[in-house]
Amino acid sequence: MMAADKAEQAVNVEQWQAINERDGHFDGQFYYADRNTQLYCKPSCPTQIPKFNHVCIFSSVEAAEAHGYSPCRKCRPNGKAVTDLEWAGQAERFIHSHYPNPLSVNRIAEACHGPSSELQQIFIRIYGVSLLDYLDRVRMDQARYLLIHSRLFIKQIAELVGMPAAADFSRKFKEKEGVAPTEYRKRARKLDTDQHS
Ligand SMILES: [Zn+2]
């Protein structure tokens, strides 16, 4: 196997057209991956077509997977069904890489190439929390980290964790942590000072 066969390639005009026409004649000739969703598909996949600048091409399933892409549940590019566990994992990965953006259940399901009610159900079964509760958890983990390790204002932290309305962020933080963000930071600093004095 030549090294080039394993490489990530830029999409050419013919491939881009095949993807847009969902042309099944090209199935097996190449696979396309979406850097945004981290999934890869067959050219004929009926799901939403990624943005042009997010697309890259692989000549084999192995190459796409070697680059960290997961198979799309809808078009099953590697010929195997995506298990519930794998699918929930795709949603988890999407949440971790996109929590700074506005996200909804529909948006997450769209990125995971499947129906939102089904994804929600499976996610809850596997992770024990809903997609949005999980998203909150990831955002609050990051917020706690930034409160302790940065000097950023609360408003800036709220934006960085995907909750641009600072009041909503503070309310949510208090709901989850039992204290307001400023108080949390104050206590963490005091603890730190006490330990070092
Ligand atoms: Zn697909």
What does this structure look like?
- Its cofactor is Zn(2+).
- Keywords: Activator, DNA damage, DNA repair, DNA-binding, Metal-binding, Methyltransferase, Transcription, Transcription regulation, Transferase, Zinc.
- One of its GO terms (molecular function) is DNA-binding transcription factor activity.
- The chain is an alpha+beta fold.
- The protein contains ten helices and four strands; from the N terminus they run ααβββαβααααααα.
- It folds into three domains: 3-71, DNA Methylphosphotriester Repair Domain (3-Layer(aba) Sandwich), CATH 3.40.10; 84-131, no CATH class; 133-196, Arc Repressor Mutant, subunit A (Orthogonal Bundle).
- The protein is 54% helix and 7% strand.
- Helix 4 crosses helix 6 (116-127) and helix 4 packs parallel to helix 7 (131-149).
- The chain is elongated, with a radius of gyration of 21 Å.
- It starts with a helix and ends with a helix.
- The structure holds zinc ion.
Descriptive tags:
197 residues, alpha+beta, DNA Methylphosphotriester Repair Domain, Arc Repressor Mutant, subunit A, 3 domains, four-stranded mixed sheet, 10 helices, 7% strand, elongated, binds zinc ion
Largest sheet: 4 strands, mixed
Task: Tell the overall outline.
Answer: elongated
* CATH architecture tag of the largest domain: 3-Layer(aba) Sandwich
What's the number of helices? 10
Low-confidence stretches: none
pLDDT average, as an integer?
95
CATH superfamily of the largest domain: DNA Methylphosphotriester Repair Domain
Instruction: Give the oligomeric state.
Output: single chain
Helix content: 40-55%
Q: Give the radius of gyration.
A: 21 Å
Pairing-aware structural class of the strands and helices?
alpha+beta
